[in-house]
Specification:
The structure holds two protein chains of two kinds. Chain A contains nine helices and three strands; from the N terminus they run H-H-H-H-H-H-H-E-E-H-H-E. Chain A is mainly alpha-helical. By secondary structure, chain B is mainly α. The radius of gyration of chain B is 22 Å and the shape is elongated. The chains are: A mainly alpha, B mainly alpha. Strand 3 of chain A pairs antiparallel with strand 1 of chain B.
Chain lengths: 247, 259
């Protein structure tokens, strides 16, 4: 390539080119993340996410923030570090939510007729906003790992409570006490997912019953710190610009 | 598009980004998969419930055989074409043509991202709801025939097409084998062979559907590898930076564009 020739004919064209590249790369990053984050989410926390009667105080509250902080941490470690773009976490969760909603609507409901108020996904945007703003304001990955990931874990249940609370109203059904969520799971038959598969809080003789959700949320927040820390490095590795077999 | 560059002379007035090809890349998957969704919507329920019935053979197993043949033929022709028409004199490329090819490469990445969406997100979770509605009586359920043996091969074919285009047309990418690019296309490719482990396990293991079962973690691991798109994006930025970086910096200094 001759250094004297220019690829663009004016500064205005250079600006236009860079804008077009922005749009296409946004599409590329967004949909590749939709695909890969969705696969990861589906097979690590999907069962709790699919059904309102799996959205309990112990397992759901613990598992979802821990497994979902992975991709946000990885994206932040590149998008903020290399471009100072402060929406790494939010773009990831928006992608996941879009992928999930399209599926729940057109397939869970559209193909196999489960009602949407049984199969709506977990709400995860609030935690992502916390992660992104903490990183933006502090500029420190360590601070974000500790404070941001703590917020990510803690906000999860409160962020979902307004959505799921109506399904926790008790009903007496054929002589049994059920929540509305339990009743939905009982009524809308899931042939391939029998009841014994459902992993939800059942109580133990060594536990207190009342404050399960906040205790689980704190544990999840603590674990999210570790996972954020690890996945921050995973993200750096994925952001490699190496060539092998240089010719 | 594919001609060997001779003496720096290339077609000068072609648009930098060919919107028609970008539209084509978007539309071909969209139209095809919407048709597929219609087909399974109708024949999933009417012919796809009992795999031992003759209509299953007609509507679903024949679908499988046809798609496999078409995928092998398409991959051979597409990858073969891209490789055979590689630019053998990349050193003579003009900056303008290099910029144009960078945009064509972006169209390839665009197509890959769109194909990944359909395969990894749409048809994968769709298979989830089919599993939970129908207790499978074959490894080749309607949604498996679409998910594993149609949508995955299609994004794999697209991914390697993108990789090969960059490697054979663009000086930046021809300097070696890009590590993140390889991971971006090989990782999701490995999801297809991992179906072997998955189906082997399911033949004698889980009849009920627990999505978080450890048997499925292979898919998770290979799904992670698509995150190497981050490195690809950085390399794409470098590739463009070589061509327009100076002008962009000057445009910033002149206030044409904000920092």
């Amino acid at each position: 390539m001759s250094a004297l020739q220019s690829a663009v004919r004016s500064h205005a064209e250079a600006v236009k080119v860079s804008r077009t590249v922005d749009y296409i790369l946004l599409f590329v990053v967004f949909f590749v993340v939709v695909g890969s984050y969705h696969i990861h989410a589906m097979l690590t926390m999907g069962d709790w996410d699919f059904w309102v009667d799996w959205k309990d105080r112990r397992l759901w509250v613990t598992v979802v923030p821990i497994v979902l902080i992975t991709f946000p941490a990885a994206l932040q470690s590149v998008l903020w570090e290399r471009f100072r773009l402060p929406w790494g976490a939010t773009v990831a969760v928006l992608g996941l939510l879009l992928g999930e909603w399209i599926n729940r609507y057109f397939n869970f409901w559209g193909w196999t007729y489960f009602p949407i108020n049984l199969v709506f996904p977990s709400q995860i945007v609030p935690g992502a906003i916390i992660l992104d703003t903490v990183l933006l304001l502090s500029g420190s990955y360590l601070f974000t790992a500790i404070v941001g990931a703590m917020g990510w874990g803690l906000i999860f249940y409160p962020g979902n409570w307004p959505v799921i609370a109506p399904f926790h109203v008790p009903v007496e059904y054929n002589g049994m006490l059920l929540s509305v969520a339990d009743l939905q799971g009982y009524n809308y038959v899931r042939t391939g997912t029998p009841e014994y598969i459902r992993m939800v809080e059942k109580g133990t003789l060594r536990t207190f019953g009342k404050d399960v959700a906040p205790v689980s949320a704190f544990f999840s927040a603590f674990m999210s710190i570790l996972i954020y820390f690890i996945w921050h490095f995973v993200g750096r590795w994925f952001g490699s610009v190496k060539f092998i077999q240089q010719s | 598009m594919a001609a060997t560059t001779i003496g720096g002379v290339a077609a000068q007035e072609k648009p930098l980004l060919d919107i028609k090809w970008l539209t084509f890349a978007f539309a071909i998957y969209t139209v095809f998969y919407v048709w597929v969704r219609w087909y399974e919507g109708v024949y999933g329920w009417s012919a796809g419930l009992d795999s031992f019935a003759p209509e299953f053979e007609t509507y679903w197993m024949n679908f499988l055989y046809i798609e496999i043949v078409l995928e092998i033929v398409t991959a051979s022709l597409l990858w073969g074409y891209i490789w055979k028409t590689r630019d053998r004199n990349l050193a003579a490329i003009t900056p303008r043509e290099e910029l144009r090819r960078n945009f064509t490469h972006l169209i390839w990445l665009f197509a890959y991202a769109w194909a990944i969406y359909w395969g990894a997100s749409y048809f994968t979770e769709q298979d989830g709801t089919w599993h939970q509605t129908i207790v499978r009586d074959t490894d080749f359920t309607p949604s498996h025939i679409i998910e594993f043996y149609l949508s995955y091969p299609i994004y794999i074919i697209t991914g390697f097409g993108a990789f090969l285009y960059a490697k054979t047309r663009l000086p930046f990418w021809s300097q070696g084998l890009s590590l993140p690019y390889l991971i971006t296309v090989v990782g999701p490719f490995m999801i297809l062979p991992n179906v072997g482990l998955n189906e082997w396990g399911h033949t004698f293991w889980f009849m009920e559907e627990l999505f978080v079962a450890p048997l499925h973690y292979g898919f998770v691991f290979f799904g992670w590898l698509a995150l190497a798109i981050l490195g690809v994006v950085l390399q794409v930025a470098s590739s463009f930076n070589n061509l327009i970086g100076k002008q962009i910096c000057e445009a910033v200094d002149q206030g044409l564009i904000s920092k």
